[in-house]
Amino acid sequence: MILDWNEYLDTARQAAADGIVLLENKEKTLPFESGLKVAVFGRMQNHYYKSGTGSGGMVNVSKVWGILDGLLETDVVPDSELMECYREFDRTHPYAVGVGFGNEPWSQEEMPIDAGLVEAAAKCNEAALVIIARTAGEEQDSQDTQGAYRLSSTEKEMLSLVCRHFKRTALVLNTSGIMDMKEILEIGPSAIAYVWQGGMQGGLGAADVLTGKVCPSGRLTDTIAEHIEDYPAYGHFGDPVANAYVEDIYVGYRYFETFARDRVIYPFGYGLSYTSFQMEAEQVMADADAIRAGKEIYVSVKVTNCGTCSGRQVVQIYVKQPGGLLGKPACVLAGYGKTKLLAPKETGRVEIAINPYYLASYDDSELTDVPYAYQLERGRYGICLAENAASMEEIGSLTLNEDVVLCRLTQALAPRKPFDKMVNRDGKIAYQPVLLQKISEQEHRLAALPVEYPYTGNRGIRLVDVRDGRAKMEDFVAQIGDEDLAAIIRGEGMGSPKVTPGTAAAFGGVTKNLRDMGVPCGCCSDGPSGMRLDCGTKAFSLPNGTLLASTFDDALNEHLYSLLGMEMTKNKVDCLLGPGMNLHRHPLNGRNFEYFSEDPLLTGKIAAAQIRGLQSAGVTGTLKHFCGNNQEKNRHSVDSVISERALRELYLKGFEIAVREGHANCVMTTYGAVNGIWTDSRYDLCTQILRTEWGFQGLVMTDWWASIGDLETANNASGFFTSKSDYASLVRAQNDFYAVCPDASINSTGDNTLEELAKGGITRGELERAASNILSVLLHSHALERLEGEKVDLTVLNYKEEEESINMDEVVYYPVARDTTISLESVNTEQGRDYVFGVDVEERGVYRFILTGASDLSALAQMPVSVYFQSIMGATLTWNGTGGQWLSMERKMLLSAKYGVVRLHFGGSGLKLKDLRLVYEGPLSSVTSLDGYIYG
Ligand code: BGC
Predict the structure, then answer these.
(1) Please, where are the H alpha helices in 742-781?
(2) What number of other Cβ atoms are within 10 A of residue 394's Cβ?
């Protein structure tokens, strides 16, 4: 396969442009014509949020294109005096990175401007561009406050002044998600566009749209309502202990179009273009018999570009269903497609296949004759061609004379605590109690215990023999002893030396015995918007999830992720920790930027496309976080209390589509609980629904250092941290590996696997099953090819290796004796910084490298320190919050020459370093393999 870096850059730039959503464009404010003099306002002109914060944003990039950078590459003429003014402000008010993981401010201090400055700029410029930016991310939700969901007072003042003095003002929002639009509309810029966070090519994509090189074609993946209080989850979001999802299936447009159309400012699916299109249904094939036979509904739409510039149109098909006994939203998105680039007057065709199963309702309340089944209730189904969720025209219909049951299931994952959920009574909101869980998960588990293959010892079967059809997986697994089965369910990390340095986890061949049997170590790396390589290695940063979904373009997503897949191959990364696919249940969820939409169909289709792209390059991705991970506050223990119907029709549906259509083979469960039990320990979720119902084949992993078991028992007994060693609960549920522990070859976290095996709490068969699931992913991986010495087929074109920039003149050399402590107290450990020093070694040999640090941040904060020796990445040591206590991390180091240069790269702020201690252990001759050593 060929990774052409130029193609990668171009594809990401196209995505960054095609995901931009133009909301307003009065009097053709945009596009800016060539030679236009533009005054650019907003301090973020000198920066750019390429993504949100936390694990989904920590991609080290060589260059990020901001919006002004992009504009400067075009024929538009930005006002240079004003630019200088902002540069000066930036010098005196440096960009604030915040301290630590998840603690970055959601916006940057804006430069106050006075009327005089704006008036002067209005005299010598023909248009204004205002850039306002927001970030958000892991560990912390956004807030309905100024400078976060709302404008800060300085921003408000700036926008008002600019709009007062410029008739032609375009506002661009470089944000992780939606903002309060009401106050912005009251000020009234003549054009508004969400450019989201477009990754390293984002500013170029934005400039393409601002100047008309690309005609905007993105559509909103969320409804924008007037007030935050209008969202149905309002009041049931942000509780640190538990949130009941009372709005049930009425999330996003499903709620607004059914009950509150008057609260909507911009509907789901909305977006303007520089041209106009005419859409005409050519064919609608929807027939009751076909539906009963499980066939798809087929729609073909002719699209003509009636305007004056080339552009692309998104075709959206919604279905209006009969209310029936279960009650339905006014409409649901049933399918979508996008035209190719159509020249003026050109006509194209979009064909959409609609799977009726995705429209079916699930009776979790025993209201129909077939409870716990997906069904299409009798009545009339209107098939509508739409501009967006609020503007549609019926193009066909079908009538079912009787209910059609598509799939009978059993109750799973239902609530254990009573609450009332929203229902639709003739277009009015009513509430009805949820039905509680009747059958215990343990009953489900015991009814389906796996076959056990007695231990045979190593018979010489290697994993590659299974891949090549010379042996069966069960015979391979039977060779693994209990100790190694207990080890294989331990993910190792972060920064395991067994895989690419600075990545999230190694899984699979974590012990010597396993490697001797030919089990490679697979390498997992965050995800989702590019590879997170904490060692400081540069990687490609992609647009955020919301932007990529706003393209409504499956093919583009697939292509982009195939390029990412090749880049992963180049870096020996086998499994991306993404896509992130929780729903945008509430606009303030911190990680919405990683996720796609309020709609499950769009979420599932985009995720499926990304997974197909990754897998086409021989790597894979991880659907996360499975499921109900819709808030960051207290994310490690918050309980999401959700009806079974809402789970199945919304919160699980995207995952289901990605499994069925994308053949996803890795899934990550959440930190939080669903209906009282941590998701990683839910048999109903990880086995019953995922595998038995959907046919998933692959592995499930926990989120990093997640808690395990029953939330209530754990809380009542000894607190949630103690539950981190209950691996047996994971095994029972079929959550295959725990992420992560520092050394998987020993029981470094005191897990209970072998103890429970001895007591009969789990079976060897269950452990073998976990091993087979893990191995099934490694079977077709490049990791196996690497281990077996096979050539991984990859050619990289047009890639320039980054130069490491160490100023050798500033490097201090410390003399190193047999036991030396180097104080690091004054080292600046801010994210992105490097500290470089030299060692002058008295006695060459093997040393213990002991780095001591502390942090006051939360227990889940991640502060990776990557250690390079002579420019070779040797280890990444990741601290979590330590409650301020010093904590030492240790590796072995080979000091084989008198002089050497060490570089510490800080991947996240918030860590205080105390010192580095180097202790002599023995002569170099004692080393037989370089595995796990820091060496130069
Ligand atoms: C996040 C995951 C991420 C993992 C590894 C966790 O904090 O929730 O999404 O993949 O860290 O970085």
Answers:
(1) 753-759, 764-779
(2) 13
Q: How far is the CA of 494 from the centre of ligand 1 (A)?
A: 11
Q: How many residues does the chain have?
A: 936
How many angstroms does the Cα of residue 877 sit away from the middle of ligand 1?
A: 16
**Average pLDDT across the chain, whole number:** 94
User: Is the Cβ–Cβ distance between 521 and 508 less than 8 Å?
Assistant: yes
Helix (H, G, I), strand (E, B) or coil at 368: coil
Give the confidence band of 714 by pLDDT, cuts at 50, 70, 90.
Answer: low
Q: Give the residue whose CA is nearest to atom 7 of ligand 1.
A: 704
* Per-residue pLDDT tens over the stretch 453-496: 999 999 999 999 999 999 999 999 999 999 999 999 999 988 88
pLDDT for the residue numbered 2: 98
* Rounded to 5°, angle at Cα 293 from 287 and 296: 55
- Residue 740 Cβ < 6 Å to ligand 1: no
For residues 918 and 849, is the Cβ–Cβ distance under 8 A? Answer: yes
pTM equals 0.93
Residue nearest atom 6 in ligand 1 by C-alpha distance? 704
Instruction: Give 26's DSSP letter.
Output: G
Distance from C-alpha of 424 to C-alpha of 241, rounded to nearest angstrom: 28
Q: Where do we find the tokens 């990545």?
A: 503
Report the nearest-CA residue for atom 4 of ligand 1: 704
Ligand 1 near 504 CB (within 6 A): yes
DSSP label of 773: H
Report the pLDDT averaged over residues 540-567.
98
Report how far residue 878's alpha carbon sits from residue 742's, in angstroms, rounded to the nearest whole number: 10
| Segment 410-444, tens digit of pLDDT | 999 999 999 999 999 999 999 999 999 998 888 88
Most distant CA pair in the chain, distance: 89
106 alpha carbon to ligand 1 midpoint, in Å? 20
Q: 135: closest CA among 118, 147, 119, 123?
A: 147
Q: How far is the CA of 504 from the centre of ligand 1 (A)?
A: 8
E strands in 16-106? 21-25, 37-41, 77-78
Q: 51 with 197: CB under 8 angstroms?
A: yes
Residue the block writes with tokens 């390429």: 50
Q: Which atom of ligand 1 is nearest to the CA of 622?
A: 10
Q: What is the pLDDT of residues 227-246, one digit of tens each?
A: 999 999 999 999 999 999 99
Ligand 1 test: best mutation among 532, 704, 860, most atoms within 8 Å of CB?
704
**Contact residues for 116 (Cβ-Cβ < 8 A; gap 6+):** none
* CB of 575 closer than 6 angstroms to any ligand 1 atom: no
Q: Does 769 sit in the ligand 1 pocket, CB within 6 Å?
A: no
Contact 672, 276 (CB under 8 A): no
**Closest-lying ligand 1 atom to the alpha carbon of residue 54:** 7
* Cα of 543 from ligand 1 centre, angstroms: 18
Rounded distance between C-alpha atoms, residue 161 and residue 116, angstroms: 10
Percent pLDDT > 70 in the chain is 97
| 746 vs 768: CA distance, rounded Å | 19
- Residues identified as active-site: 703
Q: What is the DSSP string of 890-934?
A: EEEEEE-SSEEEEEEEESSS--EEEEEEEEEEE-GGG----TTEE
Pocket test for ligand 1, best of 101, 103, 138 (most atoms within 8 A of CB): 138
